[in-house]
Amino acid sequence: MSSEQNVNYLNCSKGFSSWFWTLDHKRLGLMYLWSTMAAMLLGGIFALMMRLELFAPGAQIVNADQYNQLFTLHGAIMVFLVIIPSVPAALGNFALPMMLGAKDVAFPKLNRFSYHLWLLGAILFVSSMLATGLDTCWTFYAPYSTVHSPAYTAVVLAVFGAFILGFSSIFTGLNFVATVHKMRPPGMTWFRLPLFVWAIYATGLIQILATPVIGITML
User: What pLDDT band is residue 12 in, cutting at 50, 70 and 90?
Assistant: First the structure.
């Protein structure tokens, strides 16, 4: 077998820039998967620290204020960085075009831009840990998140990060909906779509309709 026959999306090009600036839906799906798994590891470490703190009465490894921050960061990371983007962005990007027989999603550049937005939002979100301490719980309810709160600086960073993450989800949903509408092969009618494609299509509609409401509320 010749070396040309062994070329695939994993080894067609190498280096950081070839992955970071790629338009290949499979590579973007893998990068989403790795990124969300890294975020899940970070959120899991926070959860483990909380459980270790509750292992016995009294302070073990953190004080009361630090425990509240761990509680907030664990919930916020798991919701905004793991649960929302993991299945649609990772599995959807990787499998949806192949299940439709398409070469890629409808808007490959928008797909890459969505991932870059996710990275930017994640950086802003995690950087809130280095601020004055985020202890509002992941819902950012007032009065804990208001200007009178000691954690106001961290709240601004975290909410702005969540706002950017929302745009990433909206663009991903738009891309998937357009892909299902416009890139189905001849003969694949709506009632012949695989169940996974239906699930990703419904998820895309929810991302388009619900995410702006959350983002406007946070803003």
Answer: confident
Asked if residue 3 has pLDDT above 60, the reply is no
Single out the residue of 179, 177, 171, 175 nearest to residue 97, CA to CA. 179
Q: Which two tokens stand for residue 194?
A: 């695989």
Q: Which of 123, 203, 211 is nearest to 115 (CA)?
A: 123
pLDDT of residue 1 exceeding 50, the answer is no
Biggest CA–CA distance in the chain, Å, is 68
Report, in this order, helix, strand and coil percent for the chain, each rounded to 5: 70, 0, 30
Sequential DSSP letters for 38-74 = HHHHHHHHHHHHHHHHTTSSS-SSS-HHHHHHHHHHH
